[in-house]
Amino acid sequence: MVTELRRVGAIRSAAWAEAFARVPRHVFVPEWYGQETDSRGITVWRRHDAADRDAWEAAVYGDQTLVTALDPETAERVDERAWTGIPTSSSTLPSLMAQMLEDLGVVDGHRVLEVGTGTGYNAALLGARLGDRLVHSVDVSPDVVEAARGRLASLGYRPHLAAGDGQRGFPGHHAPFDRIIATCSVPRIPAAWVEQTRPGGTILTDVAMGIEGGLVRLTVDDERRAVGHFTTTTGRFMAARGDAHAYRHPGRAPYAPRAGAHPASLTAADIRAHYPFRLLLAIHIPDAELVYHVDDETGAMSLQLQRRDGTWARAPIADDPTTVTYGGNADLWRRAEAAWQWWNDHDRPAQDRFGYVREADGHHYVWHLPDGHRWSLGC
């Protein structure tokens, strides 16, 4: 696995190559759940473990994310080894973990806070690199923390672990930290992370903005501003939760009746093909979501922009890709087209051409690094 991660450029330094080589991933993923569709068309999660050792080891040491826990409140057993339910924890694909750890920029002596303990694998990697007494990790689920504690201890690692809302940082008096790395997504940079980061320290996290999200690397300054940019590394994580059994279910009004159709210069294929544009689209239309829509009568699939007020606009995946239908306000797809025009006029900038700031007063904004054009994301 380490050889492959070095070959693809995910591991770039000898220090992280040694850490990945020292920490066996299989200890942290004794079982995992693979997504399937059963004979009734229902999505289920099938458990895999060492009973089929070859397949289990191939998955554990392959470059893939493995779901490791399901919400017991929503999980329903459908056969001996399969459940429905909501995934609550996972072991991130190793290449993404390696890229994020390299992007974190740690040096010997750094104190690190990890938000999202999960299986404990990432905490073990940090411990192998820095010494586990410099590593702090928090997870919203007490059960997940205790399971990770046992796995870590079996290999001789004893980092500082705590159960709680990681958006509030690490409990007690362990701050400040030189680095904070989050393996969950947040809609905004929490104030506690800035407060618990040493001036000159770094926060690395996934910011989810509705339509799309991205990893940002921010430096905290003496004025408690967190300033940086989106990284070349991309990845989406499960949303941070304030409670182990609480899941955000944002309310949305019923879809507005179809109001009409119009030709469009932006197609579903354009949106699907370009991650940096989807990120820009999220910045341009922060109150929208991007989903797939299947027509109940024809089964035709479309890419749909939607707002919580019931407004929607959808572009077909097939058929005539340049005709957009809409309900409610007709301007939704027009705003997406304006973003498309801006992106093309500015030579299709990649995501790392966009800066990201959390001001000391809680305001967030993104700006285009070459010309300073700025978009507010609110508080």
Automatic annotation (TrEMBL):
The UniProt entry, under CDD domains, shows: AdoMet_MTases (cd02440)
Alphabetically, the GO molecular function entries are: protein-L-isoaspartate (D-aspartate) O-methyltransferase activity
- Its Enzyme Commission number(s) read 2.1.1.77
Q: Where in the cell is it found?
A: Cytoplasm
Q: Which UniProt keywords apply?
A: Cytoplasm, Methyltransferase, S-adenosyl-L-methionine, Transferase
Task: Tell me yes or no: is RNA-binding among this UniProt entry's keywords.
Answer: no
The protein's matches in Gene3D superfamilies, at most eight in alphabetical order, are given as: Vaccinia Virus protein VP39
Q: Name one GO biological process term.
A: methylation
Q: Does the keyword Translocase apply?
A: no
> What is one cellular component GO term in this UniProt entry?
cytoplasm
Segments passing through the bilayer: none
**Which family does the record assign?**
Belongs to the methyltransferase superfamily. L-isoaspartyl/D-aspartyl protein methyltransferase family.
What this protein is called in its record is Protein-L-isoaspartate O-methyltransferase
Please give the organism.
Streptomyces antioxidans
